[in-house]
């Protein structure tokens, strides 16, 4: 699959599929895609996650593991249907708390009011994933069910308990005063604190009650503690930010040693009337990912070194060092 084809699939973001397949596919419980059923498609070493939607302009036909995607009635790309382990292929990627007391306008999680998994449940899921022999990494994420401190406490406890599996561990939570050091000491290998946007004005509107500069301060400390190439941050494209803001934001994060993950924004149905999100075009995604690649190269950062969470998965984004030619 060419980078242009993957960019087009990400830009569309949805696919219509035959119904028997629906039993085999995933419903994420965290982040902007939460609550929607999705599947993984792989072609030529590149992977895409597509949300299942009968109104999609893309239609997938699956025969065993072979999958062909049609656009406007013509074959667009062929490859294979990939099974997830937990949330994505090859990883046990677990959301501890599927609810959130914050109210970021791009995110459906606070509206879904999901459940909070117990310590034993999380361990049980991970053990089952390990038993398949396919688990290459464990990733832990969470909404904020009560306070960020409590989520960090729970994450630390889980990381300590899963070190025995001897695979890389990544954690993405809301940062607190000592979360970075505690997670590192517990045994986490990689960490993600999300800026969501680098446009300060938009940040104040969409993440009210939170402070972008505090997140940046934690990211800075995370690079000191976890090291370069081990610290990431999701950066949504489509909240109304300008191209210049994105370029500047990529520069700011990379200069700190943080690898930004450019995530195509999704308009959650639960947020209609609260925010307008415009899904970026394939051309925009390719252009921004090329800027990201050049900037990372200038700072000696590699997006293909990551072993946990979204950069090795690549389902939702163009990884600048894996997906571009
Ligand atoms: S890229 Fe990240 S959010 Fe998307 S499916 Fe993979 S792990 Fe999940």
Polypeptide structure, described:
By secondary structure, the chain is of the alpha/beta class. The protein has a domain at 3-82. The protein is built from 10 helices and 13 strands. It has helices at residues 3-12, 109-112, 119-131, 148-162, 179-186, 200-206, 212-226, 243-256, 282-298, 310-313; strands at 14-17, 38-43, 46-52, 58-63, 66-71, 74-82, 87-88, 91-95, 137-141, 169-172, 190-192, 231-237, 259-264. Helix 8 links the parallel strand 12 (231-237) and strand 13 (259-264). Helix 4 packs parallel to helix 5 (179-186) and helix 8 (243-256) runs parallel beside helix 9. The protein is globular and about 55 Å long. The structure holds iron/sulfur cluster. The site of iron/sulfur cluster has 11 residues, from strand 7 and helix 10.
Q: Work out the radius of gyration.
A: 19 Å
Distance linking N and C termini: 11 Å
Mean pLDDT: 94
- Ligand list: iron/sulfur cluster
| Number of DSSP helical runs | 10
Q: Provide the helix percentage.
A: 25-40%
Give the overall shape. globular
- Stretches where pLDDT is under 50 for at least 5 consecutive residues are none
Strand order in the largest sheet: 7-8-9-10-11-12-13
Main sheet properties: 7 strands, mixed
State the secondary-structure class.
alpha/beta
User: Secondary-structure element order, as H and E?
Assistant: HEEEEEEEEHHEHEHEHHEHEHH
For the secondary structure, the number of strands is 13
Strand content is 15-25%
Salient structural properties:
325 residues, alpha/beta, seven-stranded mixed β-sheet, six-stranded mixed barrel, 10 helices, 13 strands, 22% strand, binds iron/sulfur cluster
């Amino acid at each position: 699959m060419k980078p242009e084809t993957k960019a087009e699939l990400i830009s569309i973001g949805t696919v219509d599929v035959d119904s028997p397949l629906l039993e085999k596919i995933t419903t994420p419980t965290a982040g902007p895609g939460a609550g929607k059923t999705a599947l993984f498609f792989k072609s030529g070493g590149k992977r895409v996650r597509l949300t299942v939607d009968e109104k999609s302009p893309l239609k997938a036909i699956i025969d065993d593991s072979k999958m062909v995607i049609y656009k406007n009635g013509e074959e667009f790309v062929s490859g294979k249907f990939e099974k997830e382990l937990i949330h994505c292929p090859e990883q046990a990627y677990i959301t501890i708390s599927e609810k959130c007391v914050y109210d970021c306008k791009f995110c459906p999680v606070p509206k879904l009011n999901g459940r909070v998994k117990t310590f034993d449940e999380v361990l049980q899921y991970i053990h089952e994933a390990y038993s398949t022999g396919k688990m290459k990494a464990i990733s832990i994420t969470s909404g904020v069910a009560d306070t960020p401190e409590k989520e960090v406490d729970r994450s630390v406890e889980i990381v300590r308990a899963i070190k025995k599996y001897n695979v890389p561990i990544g954690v993405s939570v809301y940062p607190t005063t000592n979360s970075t050091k505690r997670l590192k000491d517990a045994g986490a290998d990689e960490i993600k604190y999300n800026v969501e946007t680098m446009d300060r004005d938009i940040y104040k509107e969409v993440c009210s009650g939170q402070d972008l500069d505090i997140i940046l301060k934690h990211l800075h400390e995370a690079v000191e503690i976890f090291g370069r190439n081990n610290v990431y941050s999701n950066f949504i494209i489509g909240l109304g930010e300008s191209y210049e803001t994105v370029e500047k934001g990529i520069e700011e994060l990379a200069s700190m040693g943080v690898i930004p993950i450019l995530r195509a924004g999704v308009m959650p149905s639960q947020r209609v009337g609260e925010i307008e999100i415009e899904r970026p075009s394939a051309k925009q995604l390719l252009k921004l990912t090329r800027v990201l690649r050049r900037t990372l190269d200038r700072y000696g950062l590699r997006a293909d070194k990551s072993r946990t969470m979204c950069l090795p998965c690549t389902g939702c984004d163009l990884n600048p060092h894996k997906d571009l030619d």
